[in-house]
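User: I'm new to structure prediction. If I give you an amino acid sequence, what do you actually give back? Let's try with this one:
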Amino acid sequence: MENLTTRGRATRLGATALGLALLLVGTLWGADDDFPFGPFRMYATSNPPNEPAPDTRVEGVDSAGTVIDLGQDATGIRRAEIEGQQGRYAEDPALLREVADAYAERHPGAAELVEVRIVIRWHGIRAGRPTGRHTDETVVRWQAPR
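Assistant: Good question. You get back a string of structure tokens that encode the predicted 3D arrangement of the chain. For your 146 residues, that looks like this:
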């Protein structure tokens, strides 16, 4: 085993100090986009023990009126991608057309989607335990032009 030169030791100490500084700054002022140097809030927070827990999903309605789950298997789009862009979809619901297009590509013989919506299912929680009750809230809706 060879000994490090003074320059090699200084380089390693500098890189370590820089990494620690980035972690400290990211922890204090960072956001999810700064991961791994910022907090990843998805794993850093929890819901209060008596407040409902959200479960986001995307669903579509075809021209026959059938409600279709538009999860990753149906569209190739991960739920996390939808949740991460939910603000953009709320500002411009027409962006949900991309989800309808992704579904159509994977299901060429299926009836056309006339509506795509982002729905949050709020699961009831009491004392940190599920109550078995839920409510659905449609937070974004896109309808195909007629």
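You can read the tokens as a compact description of the fold. Here is one thing that stands out. DSSP finds five helices and four strands in the chain.
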